[in-house]
Design goal:
Layout lengths: L4 H6 L12 E2 L3 E5 L5 H8 L15 H11 L10 E9 L4 E10 L3 E8 L8 H17 L3 E7 L3 H9 L3 E2 L2 H6 L6 E7 L14
Parallel strand pairs: 5-6
Antiparallel strand pairs: 1-2, 2-3, 3-4, 4-5, 6-8, 7-8
GO molecular function: acyltransferase activity, transferring groups other than amino-acyl groups
Keywords: Transferase
Pfam families: Acetyltransf_3 (PF13302)
Length: about 200
């Protein structure tokens, strides 16, 4: 049986910082995201290439810092979700992006990720997301992952396919209220986070 971090947080038995730990990968480290990361991440997230299909850059450094400070609570206001956010750093301490997971009951989690375009095509996204997936499976008992991307975002689609994700059924799209221009992907996990992974350059 896994640790119920949400219940422990709600009861005040652990501090938010104890819900998330650094994760080491071959070429980068996943650092628990904190407000102090905002300055480096503001530069990464100001890259126009990241918003070709959706979203917009942060309005200001102060707004991003405030958002990161809110996320340091590690739990949603209604207490139903655990928020896990990691900033990605290379060995030379360069910040290149983030990965994140929203944990829900019954071993389910929604994931997201973003790397600055300067680091695309090097396999770093695959490495970072797989490192997070392993962490979710081993320490948070996640067994069912979901990710959503715009149909036009073929780069993200290829990444998820290489990491063993498959498209969800039309019925599940309808149940989850996925927009018509989006695709919902899923992946089942073992206790070790294992699943089909194809070597890639993304």
């Amino acid at each position: 049986m896994g640790v119920d971090f949400i219940a422990l947080l709600g009861a005040g038995r652990i501090a938010p910082r104890d819900c998330i730990q650094p994760v080491a990968a071959a070429r980068l480290t996943l650092e628990p995201q904190r407000a102090e990361h905002a300055e480096a991440m503001f530069e990464v997230l100001s890259d126009p290439a990241l918003y070709e299909y959706e979203n917009a850059p942060p309005a200001s450094l102060d707004a991003l810092r405030a958002r990161y400070r809110q996320l340091e609570s590690r739990v949603s206001p209604n207490g139903a979700e655990l928020w896990l956010n990691w900033v990605l750093r290379l060995a030379d301490d360069t910040t290149i992006g983030y990965v994140q997971a929203t944990l829900r009951p019954q071993g389910r989690a929604a994931i997201a990720y973003e790397l600055g375009s300067a680091w695309w095509g090097r396999g770093l996204a695959s490495e970072a997301v797989q490192a997070m997936v392993n962490e979710l499976a081993q320490h948070y008992q996640v067994r069912h992952l979901f990710a959503v991307h715009k149909h036009q975002n073929l780069r993200s689609h290829r990444l998820l396919l290489r990491l063993g994700f498959t498209p969800c059924s039309a019925e599940e799209h309808a149940q989850r209220g996925v927009d018509a221009d989006e695709l919902l992907m899923q992946r089942q996990l073992t206790a070790a986070g294992q699943g089909p992974v194809t070597p890639a350059s993304s």
